[in-house]
Amino acid sequence: LSSQTVTSAKAAEVLARDGPNALTPPPTTPEWVKFCRQLFGGFSILLWIGAILCFFAYSIQVGTEDEPVNDNLYLGVVLAAVVIITGCFSYFQEAKSSRIMDSFKKMVPQQALVIREGEKMQINAELVVQGDLVEIKGGDRIPADLRVVSSSGCKVDNSSLTGESEPQTRSPDFTHENPLETRNICFFSTNCVEGTAHGIVIATGDRTVMGRIATLASELEVRRTPINIEIEHFIHIITGVAVFLGVSFFVLSLILGYTWLEAVIFLIGIIVANVPEGLLATVTVCLTLTAKRMAKKNCLVKNLEAVETLGSTSTICSDKTGTLTQNRMTVSHMWFDNMVHEADTTEDQSSERGEGREENGREGATRIRVKLLQFSHSDYDSVLYLKQKYNALIFGILQNESFYCKQLSRGALTTFSLRCAVSSLQSFRSDIQALIRFS
Questions:
Q1: Can you give the pLDDT at residue 366?
Q2: CATH 2.40.160.20 given to domain 2-21+129-217
Q3: What is the longest distance spanned by two Cα atoms in the chain?
Q4: What is the mean pLDDT of each run of 10 residues along the chain (439 residues)?
Q5: Domain edges within the chain
Q6: What's the Cα-to-Cα distance from 133 to each of 124, 149, 201, 417, rounded to whole Å?
Q7: Could you give the CA distance from residue 323 to residue 326 in angstroms, rounded to a whole number?
Q8: What distance in Å separates the CA atoms of residue 212 and residue 185, rounded to the nearest whole number?
Q9: Residues 203 and 188: beta-carbon distance below 8 Å
Q10: Distance separating alpha carbons of residues 73 and 62, to the nearest angstrom
């Protein structure tokens, strides 16, 4: 099989034809466009109109009065300053999140082990081409869509693609007409959790299953956020009220004998007075503070308006929440001594080193310790049986490829969750031994 692999010359030809093995990034908006949106979008346009009217009124006063009052000039400057400061503030906040997201792309590039002209070589995953023979093993990320030609106990984690928490077996056997269901296909961006396999690359980049999903997602129509809709509705109301009052007092001024210039200045003053100058700054500061609080929870907000959108969500219907949020399963109930006991599943999500899990694990161990202390002397056999089963569980879990739960998980997710549960209940051993001595 290795003698029939793609040659380096053929690989270069296919790479030039198909392009690199990477997903095409979605179209990006130029920075100057983002900045202009912050300065002239939404409620900002109403403040700009108010500032322009103030400057216009001041220019009329300068042309008609010997000693014009500077109130309109000051008000126009303040309105313009509020828009510029809040616009810059919002832009830099969103740009900071975008830079953090872009920094993830500069991490160590993924590597792939391919066989070309009978020789194994480690190359950048972006250089993998259709027809390459790729070797994968436990812990590797699948570099492209592969058709498995040989395997040895190979299992893959498709949770990122299908949501399946259990590892899926992969073999050369064709088992289903649907490519998503058959066992001889491995998908780009999924992970091999155990075993080894060799596969022929059948699709790369945007032509992979994950690439087609990403393309469809990028083509979705972007709808206006709830706060955008509310602000637009508010602007219509404020504009209507301001214009109505301004025109009414303009006509009233002419009726009372004021000159048309004085009536125009009065008209502008009424309109500007109805503009809530502090609303834009208040909304921006509130959204920014919320975004900073979310950043402490490792949630980056690229668009400040998305904060309000999330806050207006009333119900989120979801399954497999642990798999979705952390790609990790958690033991919720344990059975021993012919009884079902509830395990502690709470965790401090802001903890970066697992202190929350350890602390909550100790609380869970304390609760179960209380249950154990309720055993009477006649329960000696039950406690001894529990000790034997506990030791057997520890021994069985240590035989798999899962690491300690504070480290990167490897192996079956169910086994890994058992490992985490047991690691937080290490005090069982001393508790059981103490009970046996007491009995």
A1: 44
A2: no
A3: 106
A4: 72 88 80 86 82 86 79 86 86 77 62 86 89 88 90 86 80 85 88 89 88 78 77 84 87 84 82 79 82 80 76 72 59 68 53 42 45 45 54 49 43 56 53 46
A5: 2-21+129-217, 31-104+223-292, 322-438
A6: 14, 9, 7, 34
A7: 6
A8: 16
A9: yes
A10: 10
- Backbone torsions φ then ψ of 35, nearest 5 degrees: -65, -40
**pLDDT for 328:** 62
Distance CA 214, CA 209 (A): 9
Q: Encoding tokens for residue 36?
A: 């202009």
Nearest to 14 by CA among 3, 24, 2, 6: 6
Rounded CA separation 77/55 (Å): 8
Q: What pLDDT score was predicted for residue 146?
A: 92
Quick check: helix, strand or coil at residue 25? Answer: coil
CA dihedral over 354, 355, 357, 361, signed as positive or negative: positive
Secondary structure (DSSP) of 113-151: EEEETTEEEEEEGGG--TT-EEEEETTPBP-SEEEEEEE
**Residue type for position 198:** H
- Six-digit token string for 72: 């309109």
Residues with catalytic roles: 319
**Half-sphere exposure (CA, 13 Å, Cβ side) for 324?**
6
For the chain, percent helix, then strand, then coil, each to nearest 5? 55, 15, 35
Closest CA to 154 of 211, 196, 186: 196
Distance CA 24, CA 303 (A): 22
CA angle 413, 419, 423 (to 5 degrees): 150
| Residue appearing with tokens 């402490």 | 296
Element (H, E) at 151: strand 145-157
Closest CA to 151 of 122, 124, 118, 185: 185
Place of tokens 């031994």: 433
- Any idea what DSSP says for residue 303? S
Give the number of other CB atoms < 10 A from CB of residue 384: 14
Contact in structure between 322 and 328 (CB atoms under 8 Å) = yes
The amino acid at residue 205 is G
Total-model pTM: 0.55
Please report the sign of the dihedral spanned by the C-alpha atoms of residue 376, residue 380, residue 386, residue 391: positive
- CA 411, CA 426: separation in Å to the nearest integer? 21
> In this predicted structure, what is the pLDDT of residue 263?
83
